[in-house]
Amino acid sequence: MSTFAELGLSEATLKAIAELGYEEPTPIQEQTIRLMLDGGDVIAQAQTGTGKTAAFALPILEKIDLSIRAPQALILAPTRELAVQVAEAFQSYSKYHNISVLPVYGGQPIDRQLRALSRGVQVVVGTPGRIIDHMERRTINFDLVKTVVLDEADEMLNMGFIEDIEAILKATSDGRQTALFSATMPGPIVSLAKRYMHDAERVTVKAEKLAIANIRQVYYEVGKRDKFEVLARVLDYEVPTSAIIFCRTKLDVDAIGQRLNAHGHSAETLHGDLNQMQRDRVMARFRAGQIDLLIATDVAARGLDVEQISHVINYDLPVDPEVYVHRIGRTGRAGRTGIAISLVTPRERRLLQVIQRIGTTSMERATIPTIGDVVTRRHERLKETLREAISENGLDQYTRMAEEMGEEFSPTLLAAAAFKLLLGEVEIPAEDPLSQPEPVRSYEDRPYRDSDDRRSPRSGSSSGGKREPRRFDAERGMTRLYIDVGREEGVRPGDIVGAIANEAEIPGKSIGAIEIFDRFTLVDVPSNESEKVITSLKGVRIRNQPVRVTLAKPDRRKVAQPEQ
Q1: In this predicted model, what pLDDT tens digit does every residue of 190-204 receive, in sequence order?
Q2: Residues 302 and 323 both lie in one domain
Q3: Angle at CA 454, nearest 5°, toward 452 and 459?
Q4: Is residue 433 included in any domain, yes or no?
Q5: What is the pTM of this model?
Q6: Are 290 and 220 found together in one domain?
Q7: How far apart are CA 174 and CA 41, in angstroms?
Q8: Of 36-45, 84-93, 310-319, 508-517, where does the model show the most confidence?
């Protein structure tokens, strides 16, 4: 396997994709980038999700003349969703090239596109119909186009765009480079390639069939902004004994690992920035059961061999369906059953469809567990644990304690009180926070938490009853800080953790309780680090708001509350 540097990409491109977390090229990228950099035509038969966008985008960026403000590359896509997705990818890859990219598709006011074209763009990504529209208006000029890409050519054929594609190809120079990407090669596509391409090199990437009978495959449809909260909820519901959580980039691995530890989980991270000694130490802890969750990139997890993994979780769907097969194969080994869970955003539905299409096993769409579901699940697990404890005997001293207390209270009341203390639960809210724009509230008291309701602390209980006063004093060894932004600015616990961990360079796991109110936030930090945190957060913005951090005073809540 080559590296991106070995493929001949420039430093500007390498820097951009490194920041995106790309570590090694996929098979389609490794083969196609070399061919396109050499200037030849390419026919690539590959499924959606194999990494083909980068396969044609990266070599195109290397050939753009920055001094010319006119279209030099044209990418045709069957749908506006794919056109936007490809354009966004180009913009990410070209961060250090300063290249102008324009998506052109129907359903968007054409005046906006006309203004952008008049200013000059170098890469145009569009649907055939809208490109033809601009050609007829003479608002787009292809005289300087050096590369044309037909993305998902078979889909464009199925949608009736074949005549438009031919008209567009005729309008471009005969000396252009043409790259055709298609999952299948029906006759009309083969014929099109013969007429408009020259000595094209053929690249084929086959998708591996799924045949993993002892793994239950589940997916949850989630909004992008709710992804972490859903992950936390699913972990609470499933309580995996040993799980690998796969993320697409090493940046996400670090962020998710930090936030999971902040939520009280035992987690470690694994990606390409760790040296071999660090990797060995992480894997030794994972195999020994000292940590329950391993968050990793695909590259870091290659060759990972741990038999007793109960769950594999795709925080991000992989760009290559074959990678999905390898990921979920980490569980369900040695005759055991396993669970593979995927969190799927609207933008990842196409990848999900490809995985399902090549699979021989079904993927079950699941409903996100409610807080009530999680609590019920915990109750059932506690009952099983109690049954096991009773069957093992050795309860004499506890029996005597129960008999003594039984003279004062009924056995049922005693057991109920013990369950409550053991589970450490709070009242289940009437509304599930996951269905609201607010961050998820945990059903249990965790090291990092938002306020346990959505009201200002002064508002009291909506039921009219008295609430227990909140504990204000920080834990021993901790100092409570006051930050002058809160719920009204959209602040979440992760924002506070990230700001302190990143700016003050304090491990996320050492940060204590967080309480977010309407207009301010209280957070506990180690006392020996409090001044460092205050100093480090000067000039920092949270949720795009400048913040002021001071030591909290016992009466800070009253001072901070809005006037009645």
Answers
A1: 999 999 999 999 998
A2: yes
A3: 100
A4: no
A5: 0.48
A6: yes
A7: 12
A8: 36-45
